[in-house]
Amino acid sequence: MENSKEEQYLPEWTGRVKKLGRVFVYNKIMWLSWSGTGIEWECDGGFSIRLKSDEIQFGQGDNDIHLGRYAIYKDEKPIIEDRLECPEKTLNVDAFGRHVYRFVKLSESADSSIGIVSLEDKDGGCENITPTEAKRLKIEVIGDSITCGYGVEGNLSQTYTTATENVSAAYGYIVARNLNADFSIVSKSGAGLISGFTCDGERNTDNILTGYYDKMGCSVFKIEDELPSNFDYDFSFEPDIIVLLAGTNDSSFCCPADPAVSAKYDGQELENRRREFCNAYKEFLGHLRKKNPFAKIICALGIMTEALNETVEMAVSMQIAEGDRRVYWLPLKDQDPANGYGTDYHPSEKTQMLLAETVTDFVEKVIRKEI
């Protein structure tokens, strides 16, 4: 969808903040859909921010589990964490002195989007609001539920809800913080490259990551009268580093862990699926390279299963063999049960922190050209 006509009608405050991730404006409202999208600014004293929900139906059915979760940070420390439980909401923050503020969407795009209608300084205008400076390093993180922070604040006795999903406790966000980098995150729970998560071994074509990567979101709930996936991304954010953690959900299709499921398919069928995944992964690497010609791409897999690690390594080797010297393979080990689990056996906060340390160390070595 073209958005150029919107530019001349942007509210003044939208030009006084730094955008975090794939933020876009529609009908004079700044929309946050992907995990980790948000805005950052400086101002003296406090501020007032008015929020708007997408077209989720409040209090109907299971929609409450999808409510958009957000946080406000003051000088890197969270001061407000909540979910948008009503169509519109205004938050007022009082403070003395000059501070850096950040508003971040913590939950994933698949569940809901959050709109920012207005941002005003303590005097009711925006003259006192200035964007924070761009950082020297830029990172894009692409993945699935692990990257979203699915159930990171939950446990095995709970079912999924955005109340326990927190991208700021997931490895990608932490890596960006560790490296003092600006970031963009594109992640969707259950997504794969040839199949989304499947319990019965049958292909799930409704959850293919490549169908969303070029978009501004993937929510099933409309913003005003449009879906976020109707808005194309312009690739204006040019990352120095891309971290791709994909393949966990494809494993449920290519090499089912349940013996009763895998027994339904002969070895040749499963080998064909792995070969298809390898080719799709290699094709996606080519797409990433086309859209991000100068980025160093780090391909990682593991944590919840290592079943396709060798296949991803093969795809990376194929990309390198074609002359791409800026792509790297980072094998990860399965999570340690001693570190606990989040909801549905997803990584706990401790596991996410350890994963962030591993990825941070690898990125630093890549930057220093030690790998």
Low-confidence stretches: none
Number of strands: 16
Helix/strand order, N-terminal first? HEEEEEEEEEEEEHHEEHHHEHEH
Q: How much strand?
A: 25-35%
Radius of gyration: 21 Å
Mean pLDDT: 95
Helix percent reads 10-25%
CATH topology of the largest domain: Rossmann fold
CATH architecture of the largest domain: 3-Layer(aba) Sandwich
Tally of structural domains: 2
Contiguous helical run count: 8
Distance between the termini: 40 Å
Name of the CATH first level of the largest domain: Alpha Beta
Features:
alpha+beta; Jelly Rolls; Rossmann fold; 6-stranded antiparallel β-sheet; 5-stranded antiparallel β-sheet; 16 strands
Structure notes:
With 371 residues, the chain is α+β, with helices and mostly antiparallel strands. It has helices at 4-7, 145-148, 171-178, 251-254, 259-262, 267-291, 309-321, 349-367; strands at residues 18-20, 24-26, 29-32, 38-44, 47-53, 69-74, 77-83, 88-93, 98-105, 114-121, 130-131, 137-143, 181-187, 241-245, 296-303, 327-334. It folds into 2 domains: 4-131, Galactose-binding domain-like (Jelly Rolls), CATH 2.60.120.260; 137-367, Rossmann fold. Helix 3 (171-178) packs across helix 8 (349-367) and helix 6 packs across helix 7. The radius of gyration is 21 Å and the shape is globular. The model has no long low-confidence stretch (mean pLDDT 95).
